[in-house]
Design goal:
alpha+beta; Alpha-Beta Plaits; Elongation Factor Tu (Ef-tu), domain 3; 6-stranded antiparallel beta barrel; Rossmann fold
Amino acid sequence: MSLNRIRNFCIIAHIDHGKTTLSDRLLEATQTVTEREMQDQLLDSMDLERERGITIKSHPVTLKYKDTDGTDYTFNLIDTPGHVDFSYEVSRSLAACEGALLLVDAAQGIEAQTVANAHLAIDQGMEIIPVINKIDLPGADIPTVEHQLEDILAIPAEEAIHASGKSGIGVPEIIQAIIKRVPSPRWGDVPEVRTLIFDCVYDAYKGVICYVRLFSGSLKRGDSIVMMSDGAKAEVKEVGIFSPGMKPVDQLDAGAVGYVVTNIKEVSEIKIGDTITLARDPAREMLPGYQEVRPMVFSGIYPIDTNDYEKLKASMAKLQLNDAALVYTAETSVALGFGFRCGFLGLLHMEIVTERLRREYDLDIISTYPSVVYQVKKSDGAEIEVHNPVNLPDPSEIESITEPTIRATLHIPSTAIGDILALVTEKRGYVDHTETLDTTRVMMEAHLPLNEILVDFNDRLKSITKGYGSMDYELSEYQQSKLVRLDILVNQEPIDAFSSIVHVDKAEAKGRQLCEKLREILPRQLFKVAIQAAVGGKVVARETLGALRKDVTAKCYGGDITRKRKLLEKQKEGKKRMKQVGKVAIPQEAFVDILKNTQR
């Protein structure tokens, strides 16, 4: 097909603004799927995506459309995730397209990820078609949303299409806008083959399947190809398109979006954002935008039953084949046994991975407190990266510690400004810019340490703003901070699973909180147990777990009090000896309970 009749576009929006529902209507309007095959959230293939109503993986699909004048068009649509954790996936999908449908919820208005994704698209020089979605909701406020489009994104309100993904209102207008306003595929005149990999999955029978956008040239079965980032060579076994399932074709031509099956068997050998070219006539220049995916959050994952370690190891390997952003290495813990230290894109990514391990691989697992990568400069001049609090050197060996920070964009109701400022200050951050969007909403730009937003920041933001606040963030520079390792000791023995790196000002409060929880959860022993929080050699908090007392005077039914005292003194001496040699065996349930509590 001529390049003039191909349109490549994606749908971008804040999470839960109706991207996948609109994709369903476009599939119906172009008759890509029959009424019998149609179901809600058709492009969301994972159970987790359907349950949570979120898109986790980008989903491409090729749509065939005959216009009213009889002209045939091919639309290549990519439905993208909306959550900030998957913004890299969104940027790769944008790189594969020339246009984007920017969805805005008519009731919610423009939110944090709407702005972030719109700026990603503008930076790549894409044609943006604004769509005000869910106009049939009772709470829809179209004039306010149009005002926000002009003020925040500088997009003229008259360009916006009013639509409803649920009822199908405005879908014909969207299709006409795609034909008229989205440019035909770019860079098609380059003589060499240049193909962008924007995603990949692993199939047990076919091996690695690359989701690709062909910018120039053509690819067919039997071609010998080269990955331009590292020079790795492979052979093409199959090429095809998505309609919406995989459908093999003879060859992929310039402008097409489809898949390529190679003889590569390891997903780690494929780099998302890489450029494929032919080995016999390689391209001289890579397609722009390639960068490595860097994990931002680290956590330990351990099987609750230590016999499941081999099963967990095999499951992690399978999961990584379908999620190249997941990285892991084996580690051991005195308390939890054998497990893995895993790197994630963010907290939602971590939640999705642990949930998939539980569901798809039937594993009972526990994850440790999430942490970030710290850069430590030692007294001898050596610089190391610390992923696990246990590996932090002794304070006497440390010259300085730097931690990653983020630049966050917060969209909040104007009534919540004071509470949000207090929250940002509590999390060791500061607000450097505030902008009034309209009579009810404000946009703040804040700088915060990444470690401080890991667990409860988003929950508290939603709570303070009654669900109307939203946040988007991007990684900023590393900054020096007064950080220390907080150790928890039970009966003088450090428990490595509870170790964490905290700011020196928060160590005492965090230590006291953990000690109190442990006192409630740990089973009592026959002797008193000291539960302590320590920074270096200094104890900053302590709780005492009372002893179980056997009634040794029960057999004394009378007589002199000295006899009872003698028995009690003997018991006291025994408890003292027991405390010196006694070991406190912390049950697995206590670890599960305390780690779940600290992650709330």
